[in-house]
Specification:
Elements (H helix, E strand, L loop, with lengths): L1 E6 L5 H14 L4 E4 L9 E4 L16 E4 L17 E2 L4 H20 L1 H6 L17 E5 L3 H12 L3 E6 L8 E5 L3 H5 L4 E4 L13 H6 L4 E5 L8 H10 L2 E6 L12 H4 L3 E3 L9 H16 L15
Parallel strand pairs: 1-2, 1-3, 3-4, 4-5, 6-7, 6-9, 7-8, 9-10, 10-11, 11-12
Helix pairs in contact: 1-9, 2-4
This protein binds NADP nicotinamide-adenine-dinucleotide phosphate.
């Protein structure tokens, strides 16, 4: 019997319980899945940062922590965690992010707001450029960034991307490492899909915003602290940036008096760009437990030094 502890917000239990049991059965695993195993009896921890678990020391026989979220910034620096940590990669999460990014890129590319706003009886024929003439740059070409880049290539956007290691993605002009400024220069629509790490915090600062094309749009479904908020607000106010659509924030929920809520050039979405889906993520979790039990390396292991 494998003891699996579901350490996520209690409201998630009814959403996940059946999906996890089904996935374990399909993977041929005999699992006792529970919200309240004794810590020293737990083999695997399904974890979300809002679970209340902050000390992994009592989980003396646990073999791995399986994060329910793609982002691990809340757990990766935990010094009580000395077993492998896997982040979440699953098709539901990826598909949701592709939909959110594509929708918001198209909103700004076509200028949907302009016509929604101007129902004033005046016939203005302002035709947007084609996608091939709109440069979209994605910072982060991992699971989510690469999937979004591929969709935007399908739509024929001029797609650029930047990652730590060099990549090759058909139709995408890929930059890496110290080529960030080249990737940003002349960008019309910037998408942030980097993890939050010591190396990426405040990565979008005033100097880098200045490299974007005048009238550029910033989309941030990554993490709030990737952006220097004061620099972003200044660039929106000066007119260098046309709009920012922000899904993630340094403080969440975003405080009701935060300037982003009332800024005319900011769209706030409440961390809904994408969510881990119970059915598909349960398959990822079951597969990782199956692999660990078979002595195989886990999938999607977090590099603790890189912090993602
Ligand atoms: P991932 O597969 O780990 O990809 C991360 C990408 O960022 C990789 O391409 C990586 O480069 C690059 N990167 C990391 N540090 C870098 C650095 N210092 N310089 C240059 N590139 C760097 O992560 P993912 O699954 O795509 O998720 C990305 C982030 O999306 C998550 O960490 C999370 O914060 C966010 N997210 C948000 C939502 C939401 O609803 N808003 C939902 C899910 C995830 P390499 O490829 O070279 O490693």
């Amino acid at each position: 019997m494998i003891n699996v502890f579901f350490a996520a917000a209690p409201a998630r239990w009814p959403i996940y319980e059946d999906a996890l049991r089904k996935a374990f059965a399909e993977a041929g695993l005999t699992v006792d899945l529970s919200l309240d195993h004794a810590p020293d009896q737990v083999d695997y921890i399904i974890y979300a940062p809002n679970s209340g678990v902050t000390d992994f020391t009592p989980f003396t026989r646990a073999k791995a922590v399986l994060n329910l979220w793609a982002g691990v910034e809340n757990v990766v620096h935990d010094e009580t965690l000395n077993i492998p940590l896997a982040r979440m990669v699953e098709t539901g999460l990826t598909d949701g992010m592709v939909e959110w990014v594509t929708a918001h890129v198209l909103r700004h590319h076509i200028g949907i707001d302009t016509n929604l706003r101007r129902q004033d009886g005046v016939w203005r024929q302002e035709v947007p450029p084609l996608a091939k003439d709109r440069r979209v740059t994605i910072l982060g070409l991992g699971e989510l960034g690469a999937a979004c880049a591929k969709m935007l290539v399908q739509l024929k956007f001029d797609v650029r991307g930047w990652s730590r290691s060099a990549k090759s993605i058909e139709g995408v002009h890929c930059f890496s490492g110290d080529e960030l400024d080249q990737a940003l220069t002349g960008t019309d629509i910037l998408v942030l899909l980097l993890p939050l790490t010591p190396a990426t915090e405040d990565i979008l600062n005033a100097d880098r915003i200045a490299l974007l094309a005048k009238g550029a749009v910033v989309l941030n479904p990554g993490r709030g602290a990737l952006i220097d908020d004061d620099a972003l607000l200044a660039a929106l106010d000066s007119g260098h940036l046309k709009h920012a659509t922000l899904d993630v924030f340094r403080t969440e929920p975003l405080p009701a008096d935060h300037p982003y809520w009332s800024h005319p050039k900011v769209t706030v979405t409440p961390h809904v760009a994408s969510e881990t889906r119970a059915e598909t993520s349960s398959q990822t979790i079951a597969e990782n437990i199956r692999r660990a039990e078979a002595g195989l390396p886990l999938l999607h292991i977090v590099d603790r030094d890189r912090a993602y």
